[in-house]
Write a structure and sequence with these properties.
Layout: H1 3-54, H2 64-68, H3 72-84
Helix pairs in contact: 1-3
């Protein structure tokens, strides 16, 4: 590889490494936020069930599609696993 190409590739590598680190950090932050939101959702669900019981209302499915569907956090974890294993 000639000197000009080597400098170009070295600069590109530096940029890629910087971007990779930024993306990795952002994924960690998003994963933490998703965990927090999933926890809050569970707390709200429990509160709704308790209040319905206090009011003598029938238990009602809040959103049946979310029970069977993967959570955003599980999708992030799955994607991270695929990235780590090169899939």
């Amino acid at each position: 590889m000639n000197e000009i190409s080597e400098k170009y590739v070295a600069k590109a590598l530096e940029g890629y490494e910087h971007n990779y680190n930024g993306i990795t950090e952002a994924i960690g932050q998003m994963k933490g936020k998703l965990e927090e939101l999933v926890f809050q959702q569970g707390e709200m669900r429990e509160g709704i069930v308790e209040m319905r019981e206090l009011l003598g209302l029938e238990a009602e499915e809040l959103d049946p599609s979310t029970e069977a569907a993967p959570t955003p956090l599980s999708l992030v974890n799955q994607a991270l696993g695929e990235i780590e294993h090169g899939e």
